[in-house]
Design goal:
Number of helices: 4
Helix content: 55-70%
Protein name: DUF29 domain-containing protein
Distance between the termini: 40 Å
Order of helices and strands: HHHH
Strand content: under 5%
Organism: Thiorhodococcus mannitoliphagus
């Protein structure tokens, strides 16, 4: 499904940046914020163009989250076990423009 293929990289990017936002708060900046907002906008667009994707969101999130953790490990240098095994956020949280994950102690 083309919509799945198009939405996956945006969701992966969103998840990776939210992980970095939460686990590396000292590096939060305008660039990360812009990327998060932009990825949310693109995902909304994919869902509007491909309404059938809604039924595949759990699968899409699970798959994208695995890739996002791998990318976050590579970019941050943090150990893989630093990050939750499963996506800690609901789709509603992921898409909420007011949602910014709290710093992890």
């Amino acid at each position: 499904m083309l919509g799945f293929a198009l939405a996956h990289p945006n969701l992966r990017g969103l998840l990776m940046h939210l992980l970095k936002w939460q686990y590396q708060p000292a590096y939060q900046g305008r660039s990360w914020k812009f990327t998060i907002v932009e990825q949310r906008r693109r995902i909304e667009g994919h869902l509007e163009e491909n309404p059938g994707l809604a039924s595949r969101l759990p699968e899409l999130i699970t798959t994208a989250y695995g890739y996002a953790v791998t990318a976050a490990v590579r970019e941050t240098g943090l150990a893989p076990e630093t990050f939750p095994t499963d996506c800690p956020w609901s789709f509603e949280q992921l898409m909420d423009q007011g949602f910014w994950p709290a710093e992890v102690d």
